[in-house]
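Summary: Need help interpreting a holo structure output

Steps to reproduce:
1. Submit the protein chain below together with the SMILES for zinc ion.
2. Request a joint structure prediction with the ligand placed.
3. Inspect the structure token block that comes back.

Expected: a single structure record containing both the chain and the bound molecule.
Actual: see attached output.

Input attached:
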Amino acid sequence: MAEEKKYDLTKMQDPYAEKRYISDAEKENSKFGKLVFEFPMEDNEVVADGDPADYVVHPQAYFRGARQIPGAEFNQSYQIFVKPFFLDRVQHRHPKDEYLIFLGASFPNVFDFDAHIEFTIGKDEEAETFIIDKPTIIRIPAGVYHCPLNFKEVNKPVLFLASLMMPMFGGMYDMPDGSTVEMYYNGPLPCKYNENKRCDSCGACLKEDWTDK
Ligand SMILES: [Zn+2]
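--- attached output ---
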């Protein structure tokens, strides 16, 4: 029997609502209100090849960069992995640096770590695969190929943060058919300017400045 989902986002009230500590009206009179943002709840929708979605704790938090705090040059995921999962299968590069952070999620001790994760940096004959079995941070310089990323053994929960120094997540992906595709992803949230439309990563909100009214 399928495991019951802990959080049914379809039943939550306005789960993807963009939240701010101050209202739009208050923002008009506030210089710094655009810099303070409350995380909306998100549910990971990227599950490949019929894998179960329960490898990660639901819901997750993501900082979606400039769509949330205008002008931000950074986005970050906050996911807790509780089961083995082959997360990232396609080799890719980003136009800016990325940092991948692996910590124990048996809080409060982030050094309580018991997992075996395999991660590759570089492509073809240059490729090197690293075993992550302790708290680790990895820098991926702009333009450097990386992945696959495979959470092979997860004996204790792992907190995984992917921190990309860009206003929106994305990069160049080498597809199995040999093509290279530039893809961006801003989460399953509605468009910032049209709540009836799902975000299609058009980038319009990236042009906002935090000092704009
Ligand atoms: Zn990456």
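--- end attachment ---

Reviewer comment: The chain has one helix and 14 strands. The radius of gyration is 18 Å.
Status: needs-info
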